[in-house]
Amino acid sequence: MTTITEPSRKVTVVRDVDVAVVGAGVSGLFAALGAAKQGAKTILIDRFGQPGGNMGPGGFILSSLGPGEGKTHHVIDYAGVCREFVLRLEEKLLPGLYVSELQRDKGTRGIFEYPSYSSTISYLAIKMCEELSVELMLSVYAGDPIMDDKTVKGVFVETKSGRLAIRSKVLIDATGDASLAERSGAPVQHKSATPEEGKKISNWCGWTREEFTHWNDGGIAVIIAGVDYERYENFLNQPTELTEADIRFREELQHFHPGSDFQDSLVPILRQAWQSGRYKIKQTIDDNFYMMIHRKLIPLEYGLMQMVVEAGGEFDLGNWQHVSKLESSLRKYAFETVEFYRERIPGFERARVMWTSAYLGARSSVGIVGEYYLTFDDFLKGARFDDVLFRSYVARRQGKGSPEGCDLPYRMLLPKQIDGMLVAGRGASFERRGHDSPPRPRFSMMMLGEAAGRAAALSIENKVTPRTLPVRKLQKVLLKEGFFLGETDRLKELDLV
């Protein structure tokens, strides 16, 4: 591969801040809010024109945002600015968010309605950033970190005004792909679950296939307008006798999407279209990954429905060619699917694609191999760590793992070999296997972000680096903010009460 040597040049420093956060998604947004709440001068940088990540421009919100589950078990409730955000979203901005009129009638969970609220979520994010004096730097791409030997001193950004520099005392990588950590020289891991690992954890948490060396899954959300839902529902419910060929076809689809339950009325139409070459409900994108339409379309309101175009296989979000191929393929496939439904499916005669996610979302991506690497075994045994940030109860929510939950340690935010940086969110140091990872649920990602932001601010306040920050000082702040680090006996062990 040929290379080009860039000429040296001077880059203008446009901001000198305490904490720079790159990535305004589910974790980065709260990292910035947490740092600012702790008194740090903070800037939040994102490639999109609106913050929120998959809660905002991603629109891919298929799990609960709110503290509703926390009402039945307090330890998985939100805390700090995360809780304030959720309560303001639910109680002031979006009354009745969870169940719309149509969904209440049909018994559909309102959580699937979130894409239609993505702009409202971004609005609240902007509002809270303004209130806490977090400067937003939007529609800007982060480049390389600014390095002084092995210490991060800020980040270069590419803007409409050219290449600029942001100098910071602490940089938080919340890109979701550990992009800045990898460029700084920190060790990272690109791979997710193997078939052997998948067998260990079963279909409950991240589906794997023996055909693939490694596994990842993700997709984009799509909102379809002009659907006559009553006509569509009557079609779905009509009695349909399936042939042996229909049954075999459905079984083949279920292999790629365990738990798929395509309604009987759809199966013959999908099978005939597949055999004729007109349309395939599952399509190969490359030798090592494919895409497929989610088995169910979710009714919203006003003739709108949500569709999910899923991708699975060995794709790597740290590989620009994979990302580009998936982005274009999924969007093209969404439009072709709606065209096919318009031809063949009652209720879709006037349907059209109204909106698609701004970017591809996926469960697994590049992550650091940090000072501690949280494993699936830690999750199963309910591991305890002296540097606990809070306890994740994904086990209780999913019915797996230890009923006592799993501690998330501060060290999982610290990249090896590099200082002046914390890695929050999906890029943190934990084993990636789909649904199972304790950090994966949205409440965990939000609170990991806030913990990282407060740690960055405390490091500056105490004139230490994130690596040498006395963790007890951080834990006391988190406790005060309502983070659950354990019951009273456990807090005594940690010398926190």
Shape type: globular
* Name of the level-1 CATH class of the largest domain: Alpha Beta
The CATH homologous superfamily of the largest domain is named FAD/NAD(P)-binding domain
Rg value? 23 Å
Q: Work out the helicity level.
A: 25-40%
Total number of helices: 15
Number of strands: 18
Distance between the termini: 59 Å
Q: Do you know the CATH architecture of the largest domain?
A: 3-Layer(bba) Sandwich
Please state the structural category.
alpha+beta
Biggest pleated sheet: 7 strands, mixed
CATH fold-level name of the largest domain: FAD/NAD(P)-binding domain
Total of domains: 2
Query: Roughly what is the average pLDDT, rounded to an integer?
Result: 85
Runs in which pLDDT lies below 50 for 5 or more consecutive residues are: 62-76, 96-112, 201-206
Strand content: 15-25%
Description of the molecule:
The protein is of the alpha+beta class and about 500 residues long. The radius of gyration is 23 Å and the shape is globular. It has 2 domains: about 10-195 and about 365-495, FAD/NAD(P)-binding domain (3-Layer(bba) Sandwich), CATH 3.50.50; about 215-360, no CATH class. A hairpin with a 2-residue loop joins β5 and β6. The longest helix is centred in the last third of the chain and has 25 residues, at about 320-345. The protein is about 30% helix and about 20% strand. α13 (about 440-460) crosses α14. The protein has helices at about 30-35, 80-95, 100-105, 120-130, 180-185, 195-200, 230-235, 245-255, 265-275, 320-345, 375-380, 395-400, 440-460, 470-480, 490-495, and strands at about 10-20, 40-45, 135, 140-150, 150-160, 160-175, 190, 215-225, 280-285, 290-295, 300, 305-315, 350-355, 360, 365-370, 390, 405-410, 420-425.
